[in-house]
Amino acid sequence: MALIITSNVNLDDKPDTSNVFKPYSYTNHLTSTMKIPPNSQIALQSAKINKNGTFQVSRENSQFNLYFGEEAAVTDADIDDFVSAPTMGFIGNISGDDVESLTPSDTAAEIQKGFEQASYHPFLYGQSLVEVERAAVVPREFKGFKYTFSQATAKTNSVPDTDFTDKRIIAERWRHYDDDGNGTLTNDAGNNDYFYAIYDKQSMSLADGFAEFDISGANLDQNNSAFRVGITRWNRERPAGGIGFAAPIYFDGNNSDSNIFRQEYYDYVVWREGAWLYVGHAVKVGGNADTRIKAIRYYGAHNTDFPNRINWRTDREKYTKVRFNLNGERVNIQIYDTDHLSVPPVPSWKELVGSTAGGTLGTAEADRQQAVPISQPKWTMYPAMASSVGTATIQLETVHTPNNIPENVIKNNPLYDWWVQLQDTALERWAYDIEQRPWNNVGAGSSIKTTYQELDAGGTYLEGYKNAIISSPSKVYGLSYTAGSMSQRVLGFVGRSVAFIVGVPAQQQIITSNSTPITSSDVSLFIRLNNFAQQCVNAKQGSNYSKIIAHLPRFDNSGNDIGGLYFEPHERVYIDLNNTNELFINSFDLEIVYDNEQLCKSIAGKTIIVLHIKQKNI
Question: Which residue, 433, 509, 511, is CA-closest to 465?
Fold first, then answer.
């Protein structure tokens, strides 16, 4: 007779140890060969395991919201002062009445997938990490989850190398233009050519990123050299009217500041019309329930470079390029002054609109001298340009793009772009709600957002922006967004509807469960010995050749079903090893499995299995 004590190596102490020492699957090697007599039998003497409970996840408790923005005071009724809103996500891929039973580790992985799908700000893509938190001492009981959000701000100054996407309305698509595949669009001679297109290989970086246009080829004469350059979100053709207009369904082009915006949409734009150069943005105006492109008063006493509006008929040769600079919420718009009449010329970039040019954020349209902040529907934007003048050409010279987002996958993709996701699900009203807030209003009833949040001095994170997890409905952050969130028991935030980071914003922000997520276990387990010749029948699997040697019931000898469990059968059940001759054994290969013989990965920490071998009574 022999008693064999086996155990795994605790991976929490040796994280680099291979899979053969997992608490649910391990191999013990003997320093010398063990002889087992012929016709022997084996049975379980005892087992000590640490079993985590499982989460029963369904549509009823899997929905959550993420928020990335400024934190509202507890006394605020809503978040109308801010440019962000909660985004919705789910734990696991669950539909209908399905229920998934997940271990804490599996749950962490599914939460992380859900966070990735609900993190729409470009800085956050691919930067979520969810880890299981355990007690510091053995048996390392499950305590909750640790949620880490990092910000990726690295960017690349890209030169266009692929075609633009045509965004003209249906009635204009017969007109011709040339795309050289390297950032330049050109009209043929005559009055029948026209282009309006966006460069959507990759979105623009919000980390002090630039999009630079060369408009010198559009300055063809003093009377008729109209052009538009700007940045825009990725709009689907809206169904209303059926003309193929790619714009938000709540945008009113008829009451915008130029007729061209009846068929072209921009979130921020520079355009020439008649004698004048205009700068504009898509905004709410007074009590109107829509958005419109309205001009920004870039000239005047506040801007020493431009005391008067630029007269393109007299000064068109002076200016050759336009540049848009996006920094967090801030939009700076600049123009390149060749200074061609000076001797010698001293060319330079001059700011039309932005932090350097200054100016007020007045509540009256005539006083609006800054671009409205970049809000959540505009987190993903692309360069756009247009001209209907014969032989006119415009070149997108360079554009900064984020390094953490793959090329050619983001455009028109709801997995990356919140605005596209809203268009897919007919939830544009959520973006409409944001763009109807007072800081986006340039008429009566507007207010001023006094601080535009930008990158920190080191360029590594967005100042003023905090990550938050919303696991139950929140009035402050919008019941329309959060009404379905019921995941506080799974995520570990019972009594804490909105869980913000503690402290000031930083490049890496961490949130931890404040309550131990509730788990349960309603399954039995089995011990499998893989490297012996014993045999049993697993009828559930339809197999008459199973290596299972023992059953671990749901409840242990003390009546517990999760945590540290100890099993010792009242009567040992011996199984023949089917050895007619002596066995020479160098190792014991043990696994803990479910009744379907899949590994039970909810076992954690230290496992001890004691086996008893005896010679069969013949």
Answer: 509
Contact 396, 199 (CB under 8 A): yes
Q: What is the pLDDT of residues 327-374, one digit of tens each?
A: 999 999 999 999 877 878 889 999 999 988 666 655 565 667 889 999
Q: What is the mean pLDDT of residues 146-172?
A: 95
Instruction: Give the separation between CA 219 and CA 430, rounded to whole angstroms.
Output: 40
Domains defined for the chain, CATH in brackets: 2-53+520-615 (2.60.120.1100), 55-151+462-512 (no CATH), 156-434 (2.60.120)
Pair 232, 265: CB distance under 8 Å = yes
- Where on the phi/psi map is residue 111: left (φ > 0), alpha (ψ -120 to 50), or beta? alpha
Cα–Cα dist 531/525, whole Å: 19
72, 86 in Cβ contact below 8 A? no
pTM for this prediction: 0.81
C-alpha distance from residue 258 to each of 160, 272, 304, 391 (Å): 29, 10, 27, 23
More confident residue, 605 or 426: 426
Burial class (CB in 10 A: 0-12, 13-18, 19+), 93: exposed
Q: What is the pLDDT of residue 17?
A: 45
Helix ranges restricted to H, 202-361: 312-315
In this structure, the dihedral spanned by the alpha carbons of residues 340, 341, 344 and 346, taken in order and rounded to 10 degrees, is -50
Please compute Rg for the chain using Cα positions. 33
> Using omega within 30 degrees of 0 as the cis cutoff, is the peptide bond preceding 569 cis?
no
Q: Any idea which residue has 């190596």 for tokens? A: 9
**What is the 3 state secondary structure string of 212-247?**
EEECHHHCCCCCCCCEEEEEECCCCECCCCCCCCEC
In 313-408 the beta strands, taken as DSSP E runs, fall at 319-327, 330-337, 348-353, 382-387, 393-402
* Amino acid present at 543: S
Structure tokens at 299: 């000239």
